[in-house]
Design goal:
Elements (H helix, E strand, L loop, with lengths): L4 E5 L6 H14 L4 E5 L5 H11 L13 H25 L3 E5 L2 H11 L4 H12 L6 E6 L2 H12 L11 H17 L4 E5 L4 H12 L3
Parallel strand pairs: 1-3, 1-4, 2-3, 4-5
């Protein structure tokens, strides 16, 4: 029996981590085995790459950062390890995998935000992760001002290297996410993230129930 693969996507501060946790709890209450994970990360190898991408390792320690192409390759490498080591084995044994970010974040951030071509990012995904796509991608949307306020409250101004980029960059990211959802309506569930966490969770459950 195959499991199901559900991914939460969206910009900074929309509540992906909270909604991932709430959905996992609801699925476990139904007697399902649920694996929660995140990207970049989820395995020791992928977490090491996460530290280089978002933390103070590699070029980031000198304030230089990574170029968009190097970023895309590193994200693809982290995802390849994540898929092979954790996601595919969990799905094969019938577990549900709930992941905070996945491929569409690379498409939105390195593509929409940084200008790389979507076919190039998809080619990396075919090579690294054999093209594995989620059964359902929950795209959380939120007014940019409210999202920024949530991020400030959550992180007290201490943003990671990508989260701290300019508002124009994050606007391009948000627009890219919406383009993906419009192009693939069968894979995406567009969920408004306004309101209390439990209200958003109810909307998520309604979208996921079809699975």
């Amino acid at each position: 029996m195959s499991g199901r693969f559900i991914v939460f996507e969206g910009g900074e501060g929309v509540g992906k981590s909270t909604q991932s946790r709430l959905l996992a709890e609801a699925l476990r209450a139904r007697g399902l085995e649920v694996v929660t994970t995140r990207e970049p990360g989820g395995t020791p190898g992928a977490e090491a790459i996460r530290a280089m991408l978002l933390g103070k390792e590699g070029p980031a320690k000198d304030g230089l950062g990574w170029g968009a192409r190097a970023e895309a390759l590193l994200f693809a490498a982290a995802r390849a390890d994540h898929v092979e080591t954790l996601i595919r084995p969990a799905l094969a044994r019938g577990a549900w995998v709930v992941c905070d970010r996945y491929l569409d974040s690379s498409r939105a951030y390195q593509g929409g935000g940084s200008g790389l071509q979507d076919p190039d990012i998809m080619a990396l995904h075919r090579i690294g992760s054999e093209g594995l796509l989620p059964d359902c991608t929950v795209l959380l949307t939120l007014d940019p001002a409210e999202a920024a306020a949530r991020v400030h409250k959550r992180d007290a101004g201490a943003l990671d290297r990508i989260g701290g980029r300019a508002a124009a960059y994050h606007a391009r990211v948000a627009a890219a996410f919406l383009r993906f959802a419009e192009a693939e309506p069968d894979r995406f569930a567009l969920i408004a993230a306004e309101g209390a966490a439990e209200e958003v969770h109810a909307r998520v459950l309604a979208a996921v129930n079809a699975l």
